[in-house]
UniProtKB/TrEMBL annotation:
The keyword Ligase does not apply. Keywords: Oxidoreductase. PROSITE patterns: ALDEHYDE_DEHYDR_GLU. It comes from Herbiconiux ginsengi. This is Aldehyde dehydrogenase (NAD+). The active site is at E249.
Amino acid sequence: MRHYGHYINGEEVSPHSGEHFSTENPFTGEPWAMISRGDGIDVDLAVAAAKQAGEGEWGALSATDRGRLLRGLADLVREKAPHLAQIEMTDNGKLFAEALVQARYMSDYFHYYAGLADKVEGRVIPTDKAGVFTYTKYEPKGVIGIITPWNSPLSLASWKIAPALAAGCTVVVKPSEFTSASTLELVSLFEEAGFPPGVINAVTGFGAEVGEPLVVHPDVAHIGFTGGGEAGRRIYSSAASHLKTVTLELGGKSPNIIFDDADLDQALKGAIAGIFAATGQSCQAGSRLLVQESIHDEFVERLVAYVADITLGDPAAADTQIGPVANRPQFDKILRYIDIATSEGATCVAGGRARPDIGSGQFIEPTIFTGVENGMRIAQEEVFGPVLSVIPFKDEEDAIRIGNDVVFGLAGAVWTRSLRRAMLLTDKLKAGTIWVNNYRATSFTSPFGGFKQSGVGRESGQEAIKEYLETKCVWISSDLDVANPFVKR
């Protein structure tokens, strides 16, 4: 069984406590690796290494040289993508086909920010003060603490690491205790790519023992977090008490809205992709399917027929479409929400059962509920699994009202042939990403993040690098004589 240490200052190191914990393959249910159980001392060592690198060799590099290193890493990530995907699949049950696509796409993320590293420009400011030259410049915030979830560890770590390093920061990453292995495999590539020791560090373990010490550490300038709302609020509160900035990408309950003039064949695929891809374990899942009343029954019938043919099974198999739930606590949570939906009066028209006959039994059938009212818990709370709530609506105004009637605002989609309707809905829906006639598309070039309780700040695109930079304003006087020192100029 593989034993993973922390990755600190360019080396794999044993945990201070000497303790490890097992990580399980969700398809087989068997432990396959041992992960280091970190604590505050390990965090101190990692942060010290990151700080030293930022003040030393890494900080001395030009932005162009940082870009060169990131390009080399990007090429190495693409070369190692099959291995990284295999580890991710083993650790969290993601389909190998999707894990491989995501691992290869990570290379594009690093290439994009490699190119952006020396494109961060300040500006000259014409002020109202004569004889003064004023300009702005951007400087790295310093050590960045990154905390990632279990559903897409590699992708979500890269979304943060790439812009942070392009900005000139250094990083300490704490992956989920459920899925640490793929992140450890990723960070080990930095040494091979030629990065100075300490630029990237990883400390594994549990939230209270590693995450909290990282958030409150006095030498950590910014926290980047993806995860649940409750944990996000705790991190936000702790960071605020220490005057740290944060980037929080939290949950969603996104409306996937289908009008009666839509191409229903395409909308059907969009509805399926929105909720059942990645076993529904996606923050941007279209878990509320809003269907116009005039086509509601027909569309539900087509949905039910489609999911009847979905293949559950081994995530390594090419024909598998839905893999296992990533961990046992999440599996139990999804089943509880299925019971809650039934008790609230919703009707289960497809799925609704666990499948103990497949692999370890950590499988749940793709599940569809009708008769859902938007005030029900199943429509308001994030299930994070293959569970779809179908909600009818009358017209555009009704769709907008229902779509926005939730505390989240991460994403949404509109399916229509009407340009006017598409423009109206994209204006009125309160969410950070709106798709029209597609779902679940993201890019390294485009910002991603939420409104309301779906988060703070943006990842990806040019906006992301700004999260890791401080703005400095410089005033240079050309006057030979200083004005009255007792009067503000």
